[in-house]
Each structure stands twice: as C-alpha cells, then as structure tokens.
Amino acid sequence: MAILSTKGIYGLMAILEIAKGDKQNPVSLKDMSNTIGVSKNYLEQVLNILRNAKIAGSIKGLKGGYFLLKTLDEITFYDIFYLMENDFSLVNNTNVKNNEYSLFFKEYNDKIKELFSNPLSSFGDYEKQAKKYLNYVI
User: Fold this and answer.
1) C-alpha–C-alpha distance, residues 31 and 29, integer Å
2) How distant is the alpha carbon of residue 85 from its chain centre?
3) Cβ–Cβ under 8 Å, residues 93 and 106
4) Which of 11, 56, 65, 89 has its CB 3.0 to 4.6 Å from that of 109, i.e. a possible disulfide?
5) pTM for this model (two decimals)
6) What whole-number distance in Å separates Cα of residue 117 and Cα of residue 68?
7) Can you say whether residue 69 is alpha, beta or left, with left for phi > 0 and alpha for psi between -120 and 50 degrees?
8) pLDDT digits (tens, 9 = 90+) for 83-131
9) Cα–Cα distance for residue pair 17/44, rounded to 1 Å
C-alpha cells in the first residue's frame, strides 16, 4: 500500500513545472497538463490546493497562468505531500491508544517527515542523475 497518492505526485510535478515560469511569464494550465500528462480538470484541483496554501499564485486571462509565491528552497517535499494528502504519515497517532504503539508510530512518522524534508530545489540533483543514465544514442 502506498502512502502517497497520485494527487501528491501531481502536486509535486505541478510545482516543479510552475517553477519554470515566473510572475511575468506564468506557466499555463494547458502547458502543465500536456507536460505532466494529466487532465486539466484534475490539475486544477491540485493547483487550487497550492493556491489556497499560498505556495502558488495565478493570473487570469490570455497570457495568464501560474507562478510560485515561494522559492523552491522554501518548499520541502514534505510540505507538498502533506498538503496534497491532507496528512502525510504512516499512522494517525490520535487513533492509537496504547502508549508503546503510539511512541513507535510517532517515531516513524517523524522519520518520514525527516526523509522528505529536503527543499524542492534539490530535485535538480535527481534530474542530473537521470540524464546521466539516460544519455545514449540508438
């Protein structure tokens, strides 16, 4: 069972696409939808969450689109996953009444948070690594 849904994945992808633009050159919903490969309707739901959290802003109109209100250094993977999933933990500790189990799950929830605490700006490292392995000619 995955603890991360498609909404979390698309939220991350949307932020990284939005980061390619800025307030003067916002990224359009259509372009994001095509690049990510998800319907505009579903992507709008994701983008509404990001706008309500004051992570992304939008401009309406012909040359409108989305732009970041924070830098990729100010946003962590955990921030995005927590927003998209309405929580991002192994177990909701409020449902665990036994102290030993509660402590166990709290420790692992903290480890999950720590694991995903890197800023989104670190994603460039993953892109470089992927290109290194996928750079071949047929």
Assistant:
1) 6
2) 10
3) yes
4) 89
5) 0.82
6) 19
7) alpha
8) 998 878 776 655 667 677 878 888 888 998 999 999 999 887 776 776 6
9) 14
Taking a C-beta distance cutoff of 8 angstroms, is the pair 26, 49 a contact?
no
Q: How many CB atoms within 10 Å of residue 83?
A: 21
Alpha carbons within 13 A on the beta-carbon side of 49:
19
Cα separation, 66 vs 25, in Å, equals 9
Model pLDDT for residues 36-66, shown as the tens digit of each residue: 999 999 999 999 999 999 999 999 988 899 9
φ, ψ of residue 74 to 5 degrees: the values are -90, -5
Look at residues 15, 18, 21 and name the one whose alpha carbon lies nearest to residue 78: 15
Instruction: Dump pLDDT digits (tens) for 1-26.
Output: 457 889 999 999 999 999 999 989 99
